[in-house]
Design a protein that fits this description.
The protein has 233 residues and is mainly alpha-helical. It has 3 domains: 94 residues; 70 residues, no CATH class; 66 residues, no CATH class. Helix content is 73%, strand content 2%. The chain has a two-stranded antiparallel ribbon with strand order 1-2. It is elongated and about 60 Å long.
Length: 233
């Protein structure tokens, strides 16, 4: 089948469904070649209205995963690519499930926008989409994202006030929120609060049985901070 489609590509590429999914197949077979990703991205930009919402969601997930893979390989240029994919997905309402936007996706978009210094767009996104977050996630996702925004703009006091509204019941929010607090304390030269939080975090990571994957990387980062301050972790 792959060979057949490849041999008749000039005709079959005119069918947007075949073209899209065959491009996905080429992406999966040749993961290191970005040309297939760019072909799929362009195809979706030009033909989004020709796909069902379910198909469009599937196809955008492949472009998103490709960008994340490249970012994890330290290709930082794909942060901008991922940001553009998120913007396209929001425009086409692909990311909304029954009118709701997952809180983790919301937070990821907000932090990515801040990292790219797209402050105006990101602030409006945070405010305009907060009502679309499921109620169970809304408080943490909104306050954390806005805290991250203010920290990125060097408004450390506003950031810290918002972080007080975040419930650190989940490991990710606990680690990420405290890392934002550490950055604020450091920038404000509040060494006493910084060292106190470092000690609190040291005890937390020693006792926690939920630290896996990326959280372990953050633990290594925390240990390096300890060493800089001459504290044994």
């Amino acid at each position: 089948m792959y060979q057949y489609v490849n041999e008749h590509w000039e005709v079959l590429k005119l069918h947007h469904g075949i073209a899209a999914y065959f491009t996905v197949l080429k992406m999966l077979r040749d993961r290191e070649n970005p040309i297939h990703y760019h072909q799929l991205k362009s195809l979706l930009q030009e033909n989004a209205d020709k796909f069902s919402s379910e198909s469009l969601n599937d196809l955008y997930s492949f472009t998103t995963n490709f960008c994340i893979m490249r970012i994890n390989q330290n290709d930082v240029s794909y942060k901008r690519e991922l940001f553009e994919i998120y913007q396209q997905s929001l425009k086409n309402e692909v990311l909304l499930q029954h009118g709701k936007l997952d809180g983790w996706v919301y937070k990821n978009i907000a932090t990515l926008g801040c990292n790219l210094k797209e402050y105006n767009w990101t602030f409006h996104f945070i405010e305009n989409y907060k009502e679309k977050i499921p109620s169970s996630q809304k408080n943490n996702a909104y306050n954390y994202s806005l805290a991250y925004y203010h920290l990125s703009r060097k408004d450390y006091n506003s950031s810290m006030r918002l972080l007080q509204e975040v419930e650190f019941t989940e490991v990710h929010y606990h680690l990420s929120g405290n890392l934002l607090l550490m950055r604020s304390y450091y920038e404000l030269n509040d060494t006493e609060s910084l060292l106190s939080l470092l000690e609190s975090m040291r005890l937390y990571v020693l006792r926690s049985k939920k630290l896996i994957g990326t959280e372990k990387k953050r633990l290594h980062q925390l240990n390096s901070i300890y060493q800089k301050f001459g504290i044994a972790a």
